[in-house]
Write a structure and sequence with these properties.
The complex is a heterodimer of chains A (131) and B (409).
Chain A lengths: L11 H4 L4 E3 L5 E4 L2 E6 L5 E8 L1 H4 L5 H13 L7 E4 L3 E4 L2 E4 L1 H6 L3 H9 L13
Parallel strand pairs in A: 1-7
Antiparallel strand pairs in A: 1-2, 3-4, 4-5, 6-7
Chain B lengths: L1 H17 L2 H14 L4 H25 L3 H44 L7 H14 L2 H12 L4 H9 L3 H10 L8 H15 L3 H12 L7 H29 L10 H47 L13 H19 L4 H26 L3 H4 L6 H27 L5
Helix pairs in contact in B: 1-6, 1-11, 2-9, 2-11, 2-12, 2-14, 3-9, 3-10, 3-11, 3-14, 3-16, 4-10, 4-12, 4-13, 4-14, 5-12, 5-13, 6-12, 7-11, 7-12, 9-14, 9-16, 10-12, 11-12, 12-13, 14-16
The chains are: A alpha+beta (131), B mainly alpha (409).
Chain lengths: 131, 409
């Protein structure tokens, strides 16, 4: 509902972290697990990219959860490096973060890809949505 | 005309889709033991599910996101992960109970032990998840589940002492000689059966799959406020039929054969067949909802592509999750463990997990970031908080009551 349009202050922790990232069709490709920050010459800090992937999420998870998360990442052939979505690729932020088709393709999940290639994509009918 | 038809279909499939193996087993057990003296617990549960389904329907229609996708934004990944694991485990257990229920229904119809059917049932469920359209799936099983109304017809046919049934329903206390803790244990179980967590998971994710818009809100409201209470009546009919046929004989319900007896007594083999068909549709529908809900929960936490609107190849992790959950359910039932017992255990743990399911709904429905001008009014919040109070009491009481009463023995 609420967009960033016309706002002077944005709280990164509540207004972007953990939001779902979607491609132009609205299909999710991850969540904002972390942010990449850069110190500018004028001493200020700016956000340069969104990071998504379980490795980027790990620092914010309780310790007991790490074993579980890492085991499930290994199960799908990971862990993989976080995928990086440059800030310029964001087209809109509301309850979800929309990004361009090109950025979405570049940030596609490697584990999704492996699971598709090795198992799911080989089952007849895998290419048809049931709608 | 077409609109009216779709609308009616929605209400009817909400009625038929309300009942699952948990409702069937708990209502029959309670009816045979307490008559209608616990009907209030079903009524409170139905009010609860109506209030919260309406809220989550509104959140979906306005924000386009399912309720549990929003929860990680709100509470952060750690707390959301605890919620995810608990809800996921309970839903997996509920799925197992439904698979066992389907197998028991076929066992009664064919007199061959249920373990024979478990693997084929698993494969059939997976094929439906893989291939069948979301709306068709919802409608077909919901409508077929309406045949459970045979219990209401059987009740009318047997023409019991209606005054006596009425007195039981308003007594609000255990019949003479029954212990209060056991009575309360069954109250918690009935309440949990009406409000089983997967129902809201499925309802809110299903709304996204069907692409609800703010303009669909009034239709959804009528589906919820008409369909769920009428579905609750089907549950009560099962309890009332058990109260009339099984209670006087002192039957302690331990098998599904006993549950369908009233229908058979009233209408012979035809009644039995219709009741079994209804149970079959209800449990298959619920198994699909539970299986998909496991996938929804995991996918929404991590932001994977999910649902039946994307091709399986695009939602590989989602489909792998659903398939694995079906496999786990099948393997548990295949051990030969009594599905009725699995059902009872799943209801106790559902009760424990209820706050994790319903608190987020109330938070999301009050957040203008998600629902804009459609935030909860005073009525929704008043009812929501009242139900949530009952939810917390049930959750806290469930395990102690289970231990104290040795599972209602």
């Amino acid at each position: 509902m609420s967009t960033w349009q016309g706002r002077e202050i944005v709280d990164l922790l509540t207004d972007i972290i953990d939001r779902e990232i979607v491609d132009p069709e609205g299909v999710p490709l991850g969540r904002v697990d972390d942010l990449e920050l850069r110190s500018r010459d004028d001493g200020r800090t700016e956000v340069v990219a969104l990071l998504t992937g379980t490795v980027a999420l790990e620092p914010r998870l309780p310790r007991w959860a790490l074993t579980l998360i890492r085991a499930s990442a290994r199960l799908t052939g990971g862990p993989d490096d976080p995928r990086r979505i440059p800030i310029e690729a964001i087209t809109k932020v509301d309850t979800v973060v929309s990004i361009t088709a090109a950025a979405a393709a570049a940030a596609a999940s490697p584990s999704e890809e492996r699971l598709k290639r090795k198992i799911i994509g080989r089952i007849p009918g895998a290419d048809h949505a049931s709608e | 005309m077409r609109k009216l038809l779709i609308f009616t279909l929605g209400v009817f499939s909400a009625i038929g889709g309300f009942v699952d193996i948990g409702d069937i087993v708990s209502n029959a057990t309670v009816g045979a033991r307490y008559g209608l003296a616990l009907v209030w617990a079903v009524v409170v549960g139905v009010i609860g599910i109506c209030v919260f389904a309406e809220m989550s329907g509104r959140v979906v229609a306005v924000s386009g996101s399912p309720v549990y996708s929003l929860i990680r934004d709100k509470v952060g990944p750690g707390a959301a992960l605890v919620n995810l694991i608990a809800s996921f485990a309970v839903t997996l257990l509920t799925l197992t109970a439904q698979i066992g229920g389907i197998a028991l229904v076929i066992q009664i119809a064919t007199t061959i032990p249920h373990v024979v059917y478990v693997a084929p049932i698993g494969i059939a469920l997976w094929l439906i998840v893989w291939r069948v359209k979301f709306d068709s799936m919802e409608r077909a099983f919901g409508l077929a589940g309406l045949t459970i109304a045979v219990f209401a017809v059987a009740l009318w046919w047997l023409d019991p002492d209606w005054g006596d049934l009425g007195r039981q329903a308003v007594s609000l206390s255990p019949p003479p000689g029954e212990a209060v803790p056991t009575y309360l244990f069954y109250a918690v179980v009935l309440f949990a059966a009406a409000m089983t967590p997967y129902e809201v998971f499925f309802f809110s994710s299903g709304g996204v799959e069907e692409g609800w818009k703010p303009s669909d809100m009034s239709t959804q409201r009528i589906n919820v406020f008409l369909g769920f209470p009428l579905g609750g009546l089907l549950s009560i009919a099962i309890a009332a039929a058990a109260a009339v046929v099984l209670l006087p004989r002192g039957v302690d319900v331990k098998t599904l054969d006993q549950v369908v007896e009233p229908a058979a007594l009233a209408f012979g083999t035809a009644g039995l067949a219709v009741a079994l068909f209804g149970f079959f549709a209800a449990t298959v529908g619920a198994a699909l909802e539970c299986g998909l809900s496991c996938g929804y929960a995991l996918a929404q936490y991590f932001g994977w592509p999910w649902g039946k609107r994307v091709a399986p190849a695009r939602g590989a992790r989602f489909h792998a999750t659903v398939a694995l959950c079906l496999l786990v359910g099948v393997l548990i039932v295949q051990t030969g463990i009594d599905p009725i017992m699995v059902t009872e255990v799943s209801l106790v743990f559902s009760a424990v997990a209820l706050p994790l399911t319903y608190l987020p709904v109330l938070i999301a429905a009050n957040d203008p970031d998600y629902v804009g001008e459609h935030v909860n009014g005073r009525l929704s919040n008043g009812l929501g908080l009242a139900v949530l109070a009952v939810v917390f009491i049930a959750a806290i009481a469930a395990i102690p009551l289970m231990i104290l009463t040795r599972m209602g023995a």
